[in-house]
Design goal:
Elements (H helix, E strand, L loop, with lengths): L2 H8 L13 H11 L11 E5 L3 H10 L5 H4 L2 E8 L1 H9 L2 H8 L8 H24 L3 E5 L6 H7 L6 E10 L30 H7 L15 H10 L2 H17 L5
Antiparallel strand pairs: 1-2, 2-4, 3-4
Length: about 260
């Protein structure tokens, strides 16, 4: 097993950090690595905000489902799906005149452009994660940044064609975790298919969930499926995330042609 594969195989989310900063050279190396990630048409449809203000970090603790470790992370990076930069380029380049000469209406970013930009941003984020891991810096994704869209839009002064797709916390792990503590994954047969999609019957699904059986079920749940439905899918944060993303899409596509 080479070093890159070892890093990928042993990576896990880290939420407890040593009380020491990440030096500037290391931070820049993580960001520069992210910027070398694959990107659609080399457009780099993402931006990265380094959250240095402790007051903002404290606000993120509350708005991202009450997770105190966000405020303690030495490095917090917000990855944004960003088509605003290119649309500003188009306007500055007078594409309106170009479209008029072509007999076409100017096109503005739509839902497809949003999803493409989200892909770009997430690929960059994961590249940053692997780069950091290789340098001994742990990380944790905060998907809850997609909640409370209006609040985060105001907090970071986000224009119409920018969407906060993920937040990443980085820091040196406070404790050394053993390989036995790696979070379980489904068996490959449930994830990897050939040529067509595959669905599973109840027997196969029950087998798939064997590694995910918690010690205690959430609320009144009596099996693993009910547990995850109640704890994740129908939880308040999940419902808010859906509302928030729906509003973000409406804002993004408000003037779609």
């Amino acid at each position: 097993m080479n070093e890159t594969i070892r890093v990928i195989q042993n990576r896990r989310s880290v939420r407890a950090y040593e009380d020491r900063p990440i030096d500037r050279d290391t931070v820049d190396l993580i960001i520069h690595s992210a910027m070398r990630a694959p990107t659609a048409g080399n457009l780099m449809l993402y931006s990265i905000i380094e959250v240095q203000d402790q007051t903002i970090k404290q606000k993120l603790v509350k708005s991202c489902d009450n997770q105190p470790f966000i405020a303690k992370a030495p490095l917090v990076l917000l990855f944004l799906a960003d088509y605003q930069r290119w649309f500003d380029v188009f306007i500055a380049s007078d594409v309106e005149s170009y479209c008029e000469a072509e007999g076409k209406e100017i096109r503005v970013p739509g839902e497809g452009d949003l999803l493409l930009a989200c892909c770009d941003a997430l690929i960059a984020a994961q590249t940053a994660v692997i780069a950091a891991e290789s340098l001994g810096v742990g990380s944790c994704y905060i998907g809850d940044i997609m909640e409370n869209y209006e609040h985060h839009k105001e907090l970071f002064d986000l224009p119409q064609y920018v969407f906060p797709i993920t937040l990443l916390c980085f820091g040196y792990p406070k404790t050394t975790l053993s390989a036995k503590e790696l979070a379980p994954r489904f068996l490959q047969e449930y994830i990897h298919f050939e040529n067509t999609y595959k669905r599973f019957d109840k027997t196969a699904l029950d087998k798939m969930l064997e590694s995910r059986d918690p010690q205690r079920y959430f609320g009144n749940a009596t099996n693993v499926g009910q547990h995850y439905y109640a704890r994740k899918f129908s939880a308040d944060f999940s419902i808010e995330m859906t509302r928030s993303v729906r509003q973000a899409i409406r804002t993004w596509a408000a003037h779609d042609q």
